[in-house]
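Let us practice reading a record.
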Amino acid sequence: MALLPRKRRCKGIPTSIASQDHLGGSNPNDRVRFSEVGIFLVERRMGASRRRFLTELARKKGFRVEEQMSESVTHVVSENNTGNEVLELLEKQNGISRTGFNAALVEITWFTESMGAGRPLEVESRHQLQEALKVLAESAELNESEARNLAFSRASSILKSLPYTVTTMEDLQGIPNLGVHSRKVIKEILEDGTCSEVENLLRNERYQTLKRFTSIFGVGVKTADKWYREGLRTLDELRASDVKLTREQEAGLLYHNDLNVPVTRTEADLIKQIVERAVHKFLPTAVVTLAGGFRREKEIGHDVDLLITHPEEGKEEGLLCQVVNWMTTEGLILYGDITGSSHKERSKEPEIFDHFEKCLSIFGLKKELVNNLESKNLRNSDSLAGDETQGIGLADHKEAAQQVMVAAACNKDRKAVRVDLVVVPYSQYAYALLGWTGSRLFERDLRRYAKRLKNMSLSSHSLFDIEQNAFLPAATEEEIFVHLGLEYIPPHERNA
């Protein structure tokens, strides 16, 4: 959204709010650390649940978040809206005149980066540029154009990593992997403050609809496009239609609001402890590791990825079914789908997807436990179990399980969270950890480097040296980097 003419950006922070001590509309016990910054989150296209979550997150970090638009707001944060759309909305709903409007209109990237930094960042052109390229990447993905998606994603990551603010095209001289199309978009934003292609895309009905439908757990681009061609446009229309959904899609639609609210680090840590306790009931010496974005030290994410292994290879076999069935009986898992390992042999060819045994699940996380953990008073994880879920197994009693899902969706004391449980043989654990840590772009480029420069095939299972015709064993990620002739890159530097 921050694709706005520069004249609309904030020139300064109103001094009338500098003396405020407490958060507008928040718990008076929470102290404001950055009273000079007032944030207003635009609910349109963001949704009420996500807006509520982001408000709580910002307030816990000491930011002042206003429930209503006012003169004390310094930053208006929006997601997937054009600048004119936001201004029209503020004018219609809040009576805010464009004349003299001095708050900074910023995209969600400014907000998330500020939360990660623990302080309000300067509004820079890169926030505009990143978001524009991100929208184009999403559009390419929805049109199943992998090459365009990769090009725009890589360009966005490059801009994010630059140690300076891009103000002219000369600032990008000598920067690789910025294609002609990306440079054209950047040039237009730098010169005009907006990109017509991106603004038109944000208004495009097909783009909006496919993005809405693919936000449902279990729905891919082909299915979303099929529904669009059948005339469906909203989730309510989908619910009212006679479209036959898979069990996964039923669960995704039922818990859609919760699943589209970001997961916090506290919630991820709690889920890891819960799974660890469940695993140790059946295999006390098994190892459970938090992977994904949280291993890359991100504060929020879309889901929780957990790897499960055992130092004595073979001991992990059969463990996943035991753990998932027990956690479902205890009411911890609202939906789960176990897929077995698809093959035992390691492949000599590069592979995009792995073949580990895994369970793609939805957890029911009691909000009370999250609050207790935040106050360093973690209770026994067994108390997560709700009375209405006792005795329901994963594989049996499907009708009763469906009733449980519906009841759980109405439970305001519990939040549905996407959790992937992956069981890995110990000999492949280092490679699985590398693959499941991400980011996706980092992993893609690392595998491309292995193939093109080292004549090796890297996957989440193994590293195969084509010249030696041999698999290279590794007990740690560091050993994998040694095999590749690279200096070790710690997880927090892989947010490419």
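A brief commentary: The chain has a mean pLDDT of 84.
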